[in-house]
Amino acid sequence: MKTVLCIVVVLVLVSSTSLAVLPPYGYMGLYIDEHETYCTSGEGFYPVEMWIWCLPSERGMICAEFMIVYPANIIQSTVTVNPEVSVTLGTLDTGMSVCFVDCQWDWQWPFHQALWVTDPTQTEIEIEKHPDPMIECVQFANCETGYPTECCVVHTRLCINYPECPPWPCIGTEEASWGAIKSIIEK
Hints:
187 residues, mainly beta, 8-stranded mixed sheet, 2 helices
């Protein structure tokens, strides 16, 4: 009886953790780790590892379209593509369209990039919309029939040469309410 009870408890715990609720809008951010740390500092000429992380909306995600803007004190180096990616069109700094093999329902990284910081100037690496004039925002293709696109929230910039991380998220100094974020997405 104890064995059966233990199995039931384990099954309940496993199933409850796999039923995480996704947000109504997807998120994309730049990090130096697994979507937690978004700022870094160092001395002189030093390396930085940048991860592009995506959190799908409640409708899932199969593709993303965006561009990365690098400040003058950053040298781009090796880009690693996630093995779960099936198609890439463009480059990170001129506009990227990327699709995964299957629909994603949790945090996923399409790219990881090695960078070099050349001086101590405080700067940010940013995510912006793909430069194609037909694309209106940083967007994901969701997993509904026909894979329609939807705008996503740019969650963080990668803050370079910050001795302390600015308040979360690193998206400027102004306060942002959920209503303000929604109005940006709905543009």
